[in-house]
Amino acid sequence: MADTLPPETNTTLVHRYRRLLELSRDLASTLDLDGLLQRIVQAAADVCAAEAASILLYDDVKQELYFQAATNLTEPSMRGLVVPMDSLAGWIVRNQKPLRINDVSRDRRHFARISEDTKFLTHSLLGVPMVAKDKVIGALEAINKKDGTFSEEDLEILGVLGAQAAIAIENSRLFQQSDLISEFIHELRTPLGSINTAAHLLKRPELSEEQRATFLQTIQSESRRLSELATSFLDLARLESGRVQFRTQRLAPYTLLQECTSVMRLPASEKQQNLTLEAPEDLPEIQADRAKLKQVLINLLSNAVKYTPAGGKITLSATADAEELRICVRDTGRGIPPDALQNLFQKFYRVPGSERMAQGTGLGLSIARKIVEGHGGRISVESEVGKGTTFTVHLPR
Hints:
- By secondary structure, the chain is of the alpha+beta class.
- The chain folds into two domains: 7-173, GAF domain (Beta-Lactamase); 248-397, 2-Layer Sandwich (Heat Shock Protein 90).
- The protein is 48% helix and 21% strand.
- The chain has eleven helices and 13 strands.
- It has helices spanning 7-29, 33-47, 75-78, 88-95, 113-118, 152-201, 209-240, 253-270, 290-307, 338-341, 364-374, and strands at 50-59, 64-70, 82-83, 99-101, 125-132, 135-145, 249-251, 274-278, 286-288, 313-320, 324-331, 378-384, 388-396.
- The strands form three sheets. The chain has a six-stranded antiparallel β-sheet with strand order 3-2-1-6-5-4, sandwiched between helices.
- A hairpin with a 3-residue loop joins strand 12 (378-384) and strand 13.
- Helix 6 (152-201) packs antiparallel against helix 7 and helix 7 runs parallel beside helix 11 (364-374).
- It is globular and about 80 Å long.
C-alpha cells in the first residue's frame, strides 16, 4: 500500500506514543513539583530525539519568564535565569503558539546569554506553550535535534506533552498550596488563641498596671509571631509552587560568609556567645543567588544563637574540593535527639521541648532546604545530645 510507513518509522512512532502513555501515568501519580518537571524534560528530549530539553515558567505577577528545569548537566546554573519576553521562549508564551526553528543563529530573538552561561550551544529549537485552564504557565522546549531537523511530527508530539505537563504542573501547585494552607491555618490557632485570651482578660477592671502590661506584651509578641508565620508561609508557598526565581551570579563565598558573621555578631554577643568564622579567603567562586544563600545561612546561624546557651560557641566554616563547596554552621548547644533528626526539615516541625527555649515558625529549615535544592545542592545535619549540632550546606561548584 502507498501509505504504509517504513518499519523504522512505525517503530519510532510506537516508542514515542508508548513513552507519552507512560509519562501520562507518571504525571497522574506525581505531586512533587521538582520531580515532575524533571520527568517532563527527560520525556521531551526522548520523544523528540533531542540533545536536551528545558522548562521555563512564567510569573504572571512579575511578568517574567525563567528557567526552572533542564536535562543538561548545567541545569543548576540555569535555574532561575530570567529570559527576556522578546526571546524565542518569550514569543511562545506571549503568543501561546508553538515555534520550530532549525537554525537559531539566524533568528534575532535567540537569547545568546544562555549559551554563554551554560556553555551549551543551541543550534535548533522546538518549543510549545504550556497552558492550563486558559492560563499560560510557561514553555516546554526541545533543543538540538540529534539527527536531521525537527519535523511537524516532533512539534505535534511535543504539543501533546506540553498540554499534559501544564495540567500536571497546575495540579501539583494546587495540591501543595492546599496542603500548606491547611497546615498554616492549624499553626495560626495558637497565636490567635493567645491574642484572643489576652485581649479578653484586658477587659477586667480589677487588673493592675503590671498585669495589663504583661497581657499587652503577650499580644505584641504573638502578633510578631503571626507576621513571621505569614512571611515564611508566602516564601515556602512560592518555593514549592516553582514560582521563585533564582537570580544566580558568580560570587566569592568568603565575602558572603563575612557578611553573615557580621549580621549575627550582635545577637550572639547579647547571649555571651562566641561566634567565629573559620574559612580560607581564597574559596573558589560558585554560581548562586546571593540573597537566597544569605537567607539560608542567616537562618542556620539564628537557630544556633537561639538554641545555644550563654557562653557557648558558634562556628561558621567552609571548605571546598573539585566538586562542591561545603559551608558548616556548628554550635555547642543542647543537640537534637536522633528520633527528631528525620523530621527536622518537615513543615512546621519543632523539636520537642524547643518551644521553651525560643519561638519560631517551624518553616525556616523547610525554606532553607528548598533554596539549597534550588541551587542543585543539599543540606545535611549531624547532632549529639548535650554536645551540639552541625548543619552543612553542600553546593555544586
